[in-house]
Amino acid sequence: MTGIGWIQIALFCAVVLALVRPLGLYMTRVFAGERTLLSPVLAPLERGLYRLAGIDARHEQTWLGYGLAMLVFHALGFLLLYAILRLQEGLPLNPMGQAAVAPDLAFNTAASFVTNTNWQNYGGEGTLSYLSQMLGLTQQNFLSAATGIALAMALIRGFSRASAGTVGSFWVDLTRCTLYVLLPLCVGLTLFYVWQGIPQTLGAYVEATTLEGARQTIAVGPVASQVAVKMLGTNGGGLFNANAAHPFENPTALANFVQIVTIFALGAALTNVFGRMVGDERQGWAILSAMGALFLAGTAVTYWAESAGSPVLNGLGLTGGNMEGKEVRFGIVASALFAVVTTAASCGAVNSMHDSFTALGGMIPMINMQLGEIIVGGVGAGLYGMLVFVVVAIFVSGLMVGRTPEYLGKKIEAREVKMAMLAILCLPLMMLGLTAVATVVPAGLAGPANAGPHGFSEILYAFTSAAANNGSAFGGLTGNTPFYNTTLALGMLVGRFFVIIPALVIAGSLAAKRTVPASAGTFPTHGGLFVGLLVGVILIVGGLTFFPSLALGPIVEHLAGAAGQTFSTGG
Amino acid sequence: MLRHLRPALVLLVVLTAVTGLAYPLAMTGIAGAIFPAKAAGSLVERDGKLVGSSLIGQSFTSARYFQGRPSATSAADPADAAKTVPSPYNAAGSAGSNLGPTSAALAERVKADVERWRAENPGQAVPVDLVTTSGSGLDPDLSPEAALFQVPRIARTRGLPEDRLRDLVGRQVQGRLLGILGEPRVNVLALNLALDDLAAK
């Protein structure tokens, strides 16, 4: 670890924090339907769209109506994406003549992008046409991100309203998020990224003759426009197989810095939107503090582990940390920071290969996802995931003092706690349950590329990433098989919708409650005590659930590596 | 359910057209007009011939050139399309090795590479980036240490004085942005183009 490394991390934190209030204010205004800077341009478009769709922008929905609208929209989006992937061979904008995507891979990829996971079982440049990348993937990058933010807005309204029957309109939230938040930011970011060197072209792959006279086919494409939204919307699905490690997706240290800032920007700002809407910004800062404490702890461990390097390679006389799977322009610190950010948020883009991280360095990304990606988290998904934990933390504190728990003037009762636990429990069921299945059936055991405990980690990481809707991978796992395509898709769908639906039930239930005035016995939820309690509950729930599986994978691998032991396949 | 169908269909179709077609196509047009060279992939020509991209590493195996990092990319086997064969710096199939920290295959590969480089410069520590594959398999850069490590060999094979080569590397080093962001690095293609120019003089 170096001083300059810590300065890079501090600079990153400072820039994200500086963006929280301005972005929070802007988004609060957008979702309240107030006029913003962009209204003169976008408001007519928005009104035309509502007229065409038969939407009354003032008509709000109950939690059930909101949820049904979201599900119908997703079902149609899923079918559209599946159809584009299956038919890409005959559709335009296919200069490389990519063939139709196989049914199981198309199913997996459609589930992956509709759930904001963006797991890549497809190999980007070798599989997909430009039309599939743009019309299929870039589109879902926007809409799945907008859906996440819309659902967070519904849950925030549940906390901020009293005696109300509705939680907002899904159609309006989705449209406003796409048009006013995501699209304008992506236009600016795309131009910035092209300036940094990211290609944006519809031309065919380039044929060059290298200095040594060999032929080199260089894949290009409409890269910048997709990179912009894949980071901002915490999607993470790259145009290329190597994702943000590819120099065309991430050419410079500055492009890299902006990418990790944009992964966190909207998720962090949503805590401020929450604070503003419940009438006390400190409530938002308290939640962001809990996220920040967990984030810094994870960053320190990963940075330390990668700087220290792998004992096996260090034994060969190498110094300078673990550079296997990392790019020179990013080095150790920017690779470690990216890995923690992308898994803390539900992004899943990678600028280095997590599979080649040291055992402990690769464990932190796994823990980030297992906690439910509530450390800033996916846009929207991180906030509603965190608020689910808040409900549990408030319930625990209520038990300790023997009072009916309250949060922001709302009594937290049996229905909310049950739904919160349902949302929290469905993740380990998918992550650990499917891992258990894959480690006993031959089709599952055929997947890992590495032997020994690292092979187990590859499987565990895959289902953890799928159920958490992250999308990053220990990439050695051969995931493009009928077994993994279907089981991972199942994990993604359950991990998305079995958190969303309980969160919506909580939203509806809270919105209908009356507000009780604060009294001397009310537990203040904007102070350090509450932050500590929340972090404690998250770590206890996560730790008790996942520690045994981590012991079988990264922890035993760390101990084996320290003893100089290696594992070979086929032996 | 049914009353949700019309808004869902209309929003899906219109927002798909906006975000999936209008946005990327407009950005392609605008970016191509403002930054034509970068939008096309930062391609590099020499004597009118396309030699690669300044952002994409290429394979150097000759002792006369600075060599980049090992690359884990592969390509379809010409003999059997179902299999793959190693194909370093395949810019149409980016990939890392994905070998974990306790992989015997990784340890053996690194050991062999370390011994090969040690033979070139006995007694010197081998820079770590020279014996590890990058995440993309297309890393265009080396650390300045890894480039300087190769100077004695280039001096021998090209018959150039070492101090002039060290100057050459020094001029090609790109530092951290504002002294803070990123890592110092040398672009291998640019370095080798400059090397050819130096040798031609």
From TrEMBL, chain A:
Name of the protein in question = Potassium-transporting ATPase potassium-binding subunit
Upper classification of the source organism reads: Bacteria, Pseudomonadati, Pseudomonadota, Alphaproteobacteria, Hyphomicrobiales
Top-rank lineage group of the source organism: Bacteria
For the keyword Transmembrane helix, the answer is yes
Q: Where in the cell is it found?
A: Cell membrane
Q: Which UniProt keywords apply?
A: Cell membrane, Ion transport, Membrane, Potassium, Potassium transport, Transmembrane, Transmembrane helix, Transport
InterPro entries from the xrefs? KdpA
Q: Which gene encodes it?
A: kdpA
Q: What does this protein do?
A: Part of the high-affinity ATP-driven potassium transport (or Kdp) system, which catalyzes the hydrolysis of ATP coupled with the electrogenic transport of potassium into the cytoplasm. This subunit binds the extracellular potassium ions and delivers the ions to the membrane domain of KdpB through an intramembrane tunnel.
The subunit structure is: The system is composed of three essential subunits: KdpA, KdpB and KdpC.
TrEMBL record, chain B:
Keywords (alphabetical) are: ATP-binding, Cell membrane, Ion transport, Membrane, Nucleotide-binding, Potassium, Potassium transport, Transmembrane, Transmembrane helix, Transport
Organism of provenance: Methylobacterium iners
Q: Which domain of life is it from?
A: Bacteria
What is the protein's given name? Potassium-transporting ATPase KdpC subunit
- How is the subunit organization of this protein annotated in UniProt? The system is composed of three essential subunits: KdpA, KdpB and KdpC.
**Membrane-related topology note:** Single-pass membrane protein
Q: Where in the cell is it found?
A: Cell membrane
Identify its protein family: Belongs to the KdpC family.
Q: Name one Pfam family in it.
A: KdpC
Function of the protein: Part of the high-affinity ATP-driven potassium transport (or Kdp) system, which catalyzes the hydrolysis of ATP coupled with the electrogenic transport of potassium into the cytoplasm. This subunit acts as a catalytic chaperone that increases the ATP-binding affinity of the ATP-hydrolyzing subunit KdpB by the formation of a transient KdpB/KdpC/ATP ternary complex.
